[in-house]
């Protein structure tokens, strides 16, 4: 790690089109004086939401963010997993500039423009399954989930949707009905939309049945048929099952092998479609276009957002053509498929292909997991290291034997890391996720791990 009080100079000459791996530069405490001013005014005027770190960005490039005091930080949060191609990728910037000067909005649900047709065609081809698909564009992950729930309710005329305890699907009322990753997200909002049921999630590190994989024989999937379908959930009333390929906000929980396949087998017997919520895992994060591709099953419906828009608000749902609405007006919006967001999206998908970022996510993701594993051998507070591609995490515990979550320790690590120039985000009860842009390089991972190592030691010293 490079820390300096003066103007930084590049430490390596970059390959063409990439910003250099310049190293972290900390010249004021974080937050610095300019950042403090912004934060004070923000607190005065902005609604309380989910802010955790006092980083006030001024500009960014690649995996690097410069704050309003001139500090240069390494971004392992990517705007919550959004910036697959990195900050300000020249191809994305060019596409947006060209588009915004020509046509910036035309209401793609009411009129026509070509680039949203091109993107819909492309997503229908990328989403798993060879069946005919259609696409609806949205502005966010929650709106994508909301649209998927409306599609299945309309098409199937059944009242129930089943999800996983710990899953996150967004905060609008329909999506929130299926979101159960933290009580604070649901407290004081009941009654929900109705029809939402949940079963325990496949969380091997904390198996709700206290079983061990593989001797458990995937009881956590089979229980849907063996217990729920015979008690509280009549299968003929189920419109859909919704699940993430890797539980994101709920703690970056990777399901065990064959869990999805076993679940899908049960759903297929009852002709219940699977809504695969790829809002966090999709568009390359796990080293495949969609996380579900690791699990070898084909979902009927896929929801996406975050990385899809290349930094602009854009979500989408892909679904079987026969689920389409038979009449106009049953569902729509104003900004979904905004022409500038679509231009950014098409450019981002091109960058992912051209720069082989799926391969990079797999290669760098396994290197990052290996490095996190090394940290786990030295820091007993790390109870678990897990991930798929560049969707990686460490879970912090008070005691490795009891696995008691250590949320305060986790928060201290995030705080110590940001003071040292590494931007991180928590998830679950006591987990930190590591989600750099998919362009991340090995030396950037080394620098992040070095900072994280120091941050964990500092958090330990503060305990
Ligand atoms: C899997 C999943 N679904 C839905 C959402 C909601 O997305 P948004 O915050 O864009 O509404 C999220 C957000 O983190 C998510 O991770």
Could you please describe the fold and organization of this structure?
β2 and β3 form a beta hairpin. The longest helix has 22 residues. The chain is globular, with a radius of gyration of 22 Å. α12 packs across α13. The protein has two domains: 150 residues, Aspartate Aminotransferase, domain 1 (Alpha-Beta Complex); 262 residues, Aspartate Aminotransferase, domain 2, CATH 3.40.640. By secondary structure, the protein is an alpha/beta fold. The protein has 13 helices and 16 strands. A seven-stranded mixed beta sheet has the order 4-10-9-8-7-5-6, sandwiched between helices. Strands 11, 12, 13, 15 and 16 form a five-stranded antiparallel beta sheet that branches. The site of pyridoxal-5'-phosphate has 14 residues, from α5.
- Fraction of residues in β-strands: 15-25%
N-end to C-end Cα span: 25 Å
Radius of gyration: 22 Å
Q: Structural class, from helix and strand content? A: alpha/beta
The CATH C-level name of the largest domain is Alpha Beta
Q: Which descriptors apply to this entry?
A:
Aspartate Aminotransferase, domain 2; binds pyridoxal-5'-phosphate; five-stranded antiparallel sheet; globular; seven-stranded mixed sheet; alpha/beta; Aspartate Aminotransferase, domain 1; 463 residues
The gist of it:
Helix content is 35%, strand content 17%.
């Amino acid at each position: 790690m490079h820390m300096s009080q003066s103007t930084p100079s590049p430490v390596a000459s970059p390959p063409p089109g990439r910003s250099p791996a310049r190293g972290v530069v900390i010249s004021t405490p974080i937050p610095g004086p300019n950042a403090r001013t912004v934060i004070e005014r923000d607190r005065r005027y902005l609604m309380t939401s989910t802010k955790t770190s006092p980083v006030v960005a001024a500009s960014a490039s690649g995996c690097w963010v410069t704050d309003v005091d001139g500090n240069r930080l390494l971004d392992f949060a990517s705007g919550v997993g959004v910036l697959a191609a990195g900050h300000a990728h020249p191809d994305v910037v060019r596409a947006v500039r060209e588009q915004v000067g020509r046509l910036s909005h035309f209401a793609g649900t009411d009129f026509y423009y070509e680039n949203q047709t091109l993107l819909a065609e492309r997503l229908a081809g990328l989403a798993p399954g060879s069946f005919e698909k259609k696409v609806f564009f949205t502005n966010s992950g929650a709106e994508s989930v909301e649209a998927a729930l409306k599609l299945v309710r309309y098409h199937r005329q059944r009242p129930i949707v089943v999800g996983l305890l710990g899953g996150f699907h967004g905060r609008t009322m329909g999506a929130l009905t299926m979101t159960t990753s933290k009580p604070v997200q649901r407290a004081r909002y009941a009654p929900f939309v109705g029809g939402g049921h949940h079963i325990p999630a496949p969380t091997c590190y904390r198996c709700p049945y206290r079983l061990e994989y593989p001797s458990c024989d995937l009881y956590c999937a089979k229980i849907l048929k063996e217990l729920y379908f015979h008690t509280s959930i009549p299968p003929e009333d189920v419109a859909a099952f919704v699940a993430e390929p890797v539980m994101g906000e709920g703690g970056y929980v990777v399901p065990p092998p064959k869990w999805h396949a076993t679940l899908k087998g049960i759903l297929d017997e009852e002709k219940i479609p699977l809504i695969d919520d790829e809002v966090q895992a999709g568009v390359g994060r796990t080293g495949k276009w969609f996380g579900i591709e690791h699990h070898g099953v084909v979902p009927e419906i896929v929801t996406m957002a975050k990385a899809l828009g290349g930094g602009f608000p854009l979500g989408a749902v892909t679904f079987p053509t026969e689920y389409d609405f038979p009449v106009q007006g049953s569902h729509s919006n104003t900004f979904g498929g905004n022409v500038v967001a679509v231009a950014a999206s098409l450019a981002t998908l091109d960058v992912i292909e051209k720069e082989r970022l799926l391969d990079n996510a797999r290669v760098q993701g396994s290197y990052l997991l290996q490095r996190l594993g090394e940290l786990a051998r030295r820091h007993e507070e790390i109870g678990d290291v897990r991930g798929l591609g560049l969707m990686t995490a460490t879970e912090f515990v008070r005691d490795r034997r009891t696995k008691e979550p250590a949320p305060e320790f986790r928060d201290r690590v995030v705080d110590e890391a940001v003071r040292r120039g590494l931007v991180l985000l928590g998830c679950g009860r006591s987990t930190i996720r590591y989600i750099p842009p998919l362009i991340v390089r090995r030396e950037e991972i080394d620098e992040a791990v070095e900072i994280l190592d120091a941050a964990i030691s500092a958090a330990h010293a503060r305990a």
